[in-house]
Amino acid sequence: MHNENQPLIFEISKPGRIGYSLTDLDVPEVDLSALLPETLIRKQDAALPEVSELDIMRHYTALSNRNHGVDTGFYPLGSCTMKYNPKINEAVARIPGFANIHPLQDESTVQGAMEVAYDLQEHLCEITGMDEVTLQPAAGAHGEWTALMMIRAFHESNGDTGRTKVLVPDSAHGTNPASATVAGFDTITVNSDENGLVDIEDLKAKVGDDTAALMLTNPNTLGLFEEHIMEMAKIVHGAGGKLYYDGANLNAVMSKARPGDMGFDAVHLNLHKTFTGPHGGGGPGSGPVGVKKELAAFLPKPVLEKNDGVYTFNYDVPQSIGRVKPFYGNFGIYLRAYTYIRSMGPDGLKAVTENAVLNANYMMRRLEPFFDLPYPQHCKHEFVLSGRRQKKLGVRTLDMAKRLLDFGFHPPTVYFPLNVEEGMMIEPTETESKETLDSFIDAMIQIAKEVEENPEIVQEAPHTTVINRLDETKAARKPVLRYTPATEEELVKA
Amino acid sequence: MMHRYMPMTEADRVEMLNVIGISSVDELFADIPESVRFTRDLAIKEAKSESALLKELSRLAAKNADSKQYASFLGAGVYDHYKPIIVDHVISRSEFYTAYTPYQPEISQGELQAIFEFQTMICELTGMDLANSSMYDGGTALAEAGTLAAGHTKRKKLLVSETVHPESRDVVRAYADGQQIEVITIPQKHGVTDVEELKKLLADDTAAVLVQYPNFFGQVEELQEIGELAHDNGALFVVSSNPLALGILTPPGELGADITVGDAQPFGIPEQFGGPHCGYFAVTKKLMRKVPGRLVGETTDDQGRRGYVLTLQAREQHIRRDKATSNICSNQALNALAASVAMTALGKNGARDIAYQNYAKTHYAKQAFEKAGYTVLGGNAHFNEIVVDCKRSVKELNKHLLEQGIIGGYDLSLTYAGMENHALFAVTEQRTKEEIDALVQEMEAVHA
């Protein structure tokens, strides 16, 4: 990485330079001031940058050099499944017959795209053990909300309007309670027990005739399989509630256990995680939802169907929760996921899970002597270390995460889940080699030694990045959220 | 098995099992109760090689009619525009597309700075004080604007113009349903929001008035009056806007908008069957802490060097959980990057020129239709779409047009009662005079 500051594109701008090529107008010129009301005509051009094409390419190349992706190096960010993003996916998504089709074209002119979507639905049904799948949700959180709205509609259709609460374990992703709120529910937190699993007694105490659903990640965010899942399903179903599966961790159980066989009524998947989306620097994602037959009547509109070999969108779904997104979901992303699934096949997906879980356990055992491991049983695709031991020596998990940057690694997810003190959540994925895992492990061991012998080097890390730790308090106290020439001067003065 | 995406060899496996102290991988799954253990093979299609799969999928793609082979007059929220070739080169740099949310700013300055620049460009176009790092799409951005307004005003009614995209209105309704917010439609008159009806509907329980600019029929609404009416009633004014149109139209921020949302798809993002596109969300300063999703802010390190971080995160789900402003977690960062590159390539002059061309071509089409005896809805206050009474079934007409290599307009009878035979045609800068003439001629040919 280069150490010099990269100017903002606005600071490179010079009046008169252009980076575009428009065809000359082949219809008569118009006089906007004669045709549009004065109040509607823009008086001052938007101050977008004025740069040449090479300026643009150099600028963004410089920015890319200041960014770490999976293609740059190891990225064991727990619960995010930062696996390799296959290049065939990118090639397929750019085929003109997929990239340049309009969602409102006549269905007869987009049968190829609809076939992909339909076949993907079938594949996802089989992988999850669910009866129906909708591809519409744009991301995991969007899928959570979609499924909760369906569960709500289901209860209401039974005249069961008192189910206002959603149970969420304390180890759950933050999106779970947030989605429950957006769907109009109150969240009740269920505690974990000493083994890192849902406390069954606490669940029993909190479930009731006001329970709409229990949202569960399995394996949970500690990377542990909820062994008592069937008992939990019985408890929740017995009280009339539904079971919701957060599919963020599906990479851990593909072809080993299916949500549909574990008693779950609804599931969302993160195609950008398990099925190589890619992650795109934060998105776009894709968050399909699978449901059991009982909930199928409430699927969002339109429902993709196949009749006599012809694919159609069915808008006549009387009990549907309505439309959760314009058009049909993030086609460009689920097309990539479909390409991935077809590249792997049944044996491939099974090997994905086995290798991901083996990699995680190998790392966990090698790191166990150097860090606290609150839950020592075998893990699934990820595990959570605690930095308690190092904290006693004055070094926090955040410091160790920053120190990893000096070794060229992206740090694990830190301070999550919330039920582990100074947590470091490590997910290697199946696409990393043993050599890569070993070099990361060596770096972690070295850092653990540094904490004992030379803690400053960790506390003051990173030392090799283009910038040191940034002042986040300043950023939040006096937010500068856009470029203006004036704020740049102020910032320098401050 | 060996696969090109999985480097684990048999020797690696043996070594790793030894370290763990087990003899087979199966032992790692022993905690899955037998009753739920999946023991058969997944009944999905067998793996295909890279070439075979590419061939199969290319064949499927070839079944679709794409806008590179056909002259498309279909818009209705998704447009065929000039995409500078450089856009795809930038977003193909895998340091961008294989990264995730920039949680570690020291190794994510590229993404963070790119988003900061995106936020700035959206502010420039919309005239708003600040913008977030992007939303899923224009429809869900509008829905989140509605729920934000309800939360902010503590009122439970949204007035949404009938001239807002029907699919976006559906999404607003679905989001509102979850939070017991009532959605009321403001009727349209002559293709624009009926201000007299709006006056009747406005009340002291109105959280917000939601309109589109240019609206679904391509008409440019008089925002100022609507905004004033909303504000007089203590409601927020929400505008959904095609950002490309803002190259020539007065920015909503100058016309009273409290929240401006929309989709940046017209800037460098392919249609790709409706998604992923790129919602944007921009607000006035007073709503800064209510914004959903990620915000990137500028700050410095201990050496005084300028840098960028995710900021004001106390609004977000991973901190605030059930008290968050929204459940949104991922955004459309890669598409925001694509839009940024396209906005940068167009720049100050290109943003105006491309918008002007859209107007001029659409105006030419309008006159051509009128000359041929068709009624076109509204006057000259259009942008790049017009509503034409085709005097026959649009479905039938489109079938004929397709045979002539033309993808026709959007059939308004699908979503608007009383608009039988009416089509919404989009005429972007990509359409040539010849194509426009051919469209009008072929419509005539059908009648003949």
What is the N-to-C succession of helices and strands of chain A? HHHHHHEHEHEHEHEEEHEEHEHHEEHHHH
Computed Rg of chain A: 25 Å
| Distance N to C terminus of chain B | 65 Å
Determine the number of helices of chain B (DSSP H or I, runs of at least 4 residues).
Answer: 13
* Strands ordered across the widest β-sheet of chain A: 1-7-6-5-4-2-3
Structural write-up:
The complex is a heterodimer of chains A (494) and B (448). Chain A is α/β, with parallel strands linked by helices and 494 residues long. Chain A folds into three domains: 9-64, no CATH class; 89-343, Aspartate Aminotransferase, domain 2; 353-459, Alpha-Beta Complex (Aspartate Aminotransferase, domain 1), CATH 3.90.1150.10. Chain A contains 18 helices and twelve strands. Chain A has helices at residues 9-12, 32-35, 53-64, 87-93, 96-99, 111-128, 140-157, 175-182, 200-206, 229-238, 293-296, 331-367, 388-391, 397-406, 434-453, 455-459, 472-477, 485-493; strands spanning 132-134, 165-169, 186-190, 211-217, 242-247, 266-269, 289-291, 303-307, 310-314, 383-386, 413-414, 423-426. Chain A has a seven-stranded mixed beta sheet, with helices on both faces. In chain A, strands 10-12-11 form a three-stranded antiparallel beta sheet, with helices on one face. A two-stranded antiparallel sheet of chain A has the order 8-9. The longest helix of chain A has 37 residues, at 331-367. Chain A is globular and about 75 Å long. The model of chain A has no long low-confidence stretch (mean pLDDT 96). Chain B has two domains: 71-82 and 348-447, Aspartate Aminotransferase, domain 1 (Alpha-Beta Complex); 86-341, Type I PLP-dependent aspartate aminotransferase-like (Major domain) (Aspartate Aminotransferase, domain 2). By secondary structure, chain B is an alpha/beta fold. The chains are: A alpha/beta (494), B alpha/beta (448). Chains A and B meet through helix 3, helix 4, helix 5, helix 6 and helix 7 of A and helix 1, helix 2, helix 3, helix 4 and helix 5 of B.
